[in-house]
Amino acid sequence: MRKGSWSATVGLVLAACLATGTSLAAEVAAPADKQAPGHHTYMLVLSWEPEFCYLHGDGHPECAAGDRATSFGATHPTLHGLWPQWSSACSLSAKDNDPTWKDRVLPPLSPAVQTTLAQVMPGIASGLALHEWQKHGYCSGLPADQYYSLAGGMVKALGDGKAGALLANATGKGVTRKAVCDALAADFGEAARQSAVLGTGKAAFLTQITFTLKAADDGSTALDAAHLAESPADQPGRCDKGNPDETLKLAAFK
């Protein structure tokens, strides 16, 4: 989770770098155990921002933003991360607790990717893009711009589909697990029922949605029928598990 992983000060520095296309430090060398792309799966992790801010908002600038109630994240799942699922950890990932990680480089991102992240990843205000790149994205073997273009595009694809509309209309109210899973299957194919996991917290409030995705030979992926992979069967929130009639509550910004 994002709680306590970075400071507001770092977030402001990162936001400035994203806006100007500058990097935070000199390019770092690839770790010795960095793996070649295309031999793994990804976990796409999406957050429900109003619930995140309710639980962890202190110290996160995005949760205090004046326009948060009208933002994309007010009614749509937002990007937490795109995590390569390696058989062994990438060395940068293993150093997440190193206090110097905040000084490691986030390569310049194109204006188009910056614009997408500003919409679908509100956590950039508190350093999430840097954190996710150094812990996960760098280990994917993809350039930063391609990595975030893929991740941001998948968030927008979900938001533009039947599931996105369903969640937006249910914000501040609730929706059954079956309705969400049916919409995901309509958007991305029946394999979504074994790939999508709906995470909930106390009182059945939706906290996150995850998908397991196959990587192509070049390391790319997509949120579609060709790339959906089965999530672990012991995941209680998997679409084909649990009570389909359970009502998931969707927190809303006040």
TrEMBL record:
Database matches in InterPro entries: RNase_T2-like, RNase_T2-like_sf, RNase_T2_His_AS_2
Keyword annotations from UniProtKB, A to Z: Lyase, Signal
Entry superkingdom: Bacteria
Gene Ontology biological process terms, A to Z: RNA catabolic process
Pfam families linked: Ribonuclease_T2
A single MF term (Gene Ontology): RNA binding
Keyword Signal on entry: yes
Family: Belongs to the RNase T2 family.
This protein's name: Ribonuclease T2
Organism of this sequence: Nitrospirillum iridis
